[in-house]
Write a structure and sequence with these properties.
This protein is α/β, with parallel strands linked by helices and 255 residues long. The protein has a single domain, classed as Vaccinia Virus protein VP39 (Rossmann fold, 3-Layer(aba) Sandwich), CATH 3.40.50.150. It has eleven helices and eight strands. The radius of gyration is 18 Å and the shape is globular. The chain starts with 9 loop residues before the first helix and ends with a strand.
Length: 255
């Protein structure tokens, strides 16, 4: 599958995004640890401000007016208007930079990552998904068409690390059962959530399917939840403390 424009129009579809996509403190700890001693942090594709540290200076860049307004509602610092591909900062302006679940929206991944490296002295931190690990999650059995969309949008981890250069550490992030950040894998033990339209609207991949396709996929899951078939096949997920899926944190240093 090829997707001409992988970006999600948050101004059209993200009105209630921050209601469902929030900073999960257990995932956030990995980000905080990765930032190390950095005192100045750039957050690109910052959205409503998820995973921004509260104890350092953060400069946020976000193109969507809807997401910028939600930042203010969440008591985050205002974001400047901009995109990853053209950052309005001098070389090495920040100790560290971060891009949280956003690189799959960028129109020019290479240019955006090179811009991040250009303006950053030390760590560049990317939270993303490994497209080679998407089959680990049970939703591939119910939403294969959706997974193909995701696989087409998520860049290979090696592509990201090669562009950034230097040295990269890749962490597999465990997802807690009661995760409050509503990406797809967050509901590994709460499948009923996918039956809620507002939950799906906060997961960008669904917009790349037609309404008819979305209804068909949701009905597949609904049928097995009602019959008990989902619990026969995957019910153990309801009690897993953590799920190790495709979520990754890339920590790139210049040397």
């Amino acid at each position: 599958m090829k997707i001409k424009n992988p970006s999600f129009n948050y101004d059209d579809h993200g009105k209630k995004y921050s209601n469902y996509r929030q900073t999960d403190p257990r995932i956030a700890q990995f980000v905080i640890d990765a930032l190390g001693e950095a005192k100045t942090v750039l957050n690109v594709g910052a959205g409503a401000g998820s995973y921004e540290p509260d104890d350092r200076f953060v400069m946020a860049v976000e193109p969507s007016v809807t997401m910028r307004s939600q930042r203010l509602r969440e008591n985050k610092n205002p974001a400047i208007i901009g995109t990853a591909e053209a950052l309005p900062f001098d070389d090495k302006s920040f100790d560290a930079s971060m891009a949280m679940l956003t690189v799959h929206h960028w129109l020019d991944l290479e240019k955006g990552l090179k811009e991040l490296r250009r303006v950053t002295r030390e760590e560049v931190i990317i939270m993303t998904y490994d497209p080679d690990a998407l089959n680990v999650f049970w939703n591939v059995h119910y939403f294969p068409e959706l997974i193909e969309v995701e696989r087409a949008r998520y860049p290979d981890i090696k592509v990201i690390t090669d562009i950034l250069g230097g040295h990269s550490e890749i962490l597999q992030i465990p997802i807690p059962l009661d995760c409050i950040d509503g990406f797809q894998e967050a509901f590994y033990g709460r499948p009923e959530a996918f039956l809620e339209e507002e939950v799906r609207k906060a997961q960008s991949a669904w917009v790349f399917l037609s309404d008819e396709q979305e209804e068909e996929l949701v009905n597949r899951l609904r049928k097995d939840l009602v019959s008990g078939e989902w619990d026969k096949k995957f019910g153990e997920h309801r009690t897993l403390t953590n799920f190790h899926g495709a979520l990754r944190l890339i920590i790139s240093t210049p040397k």
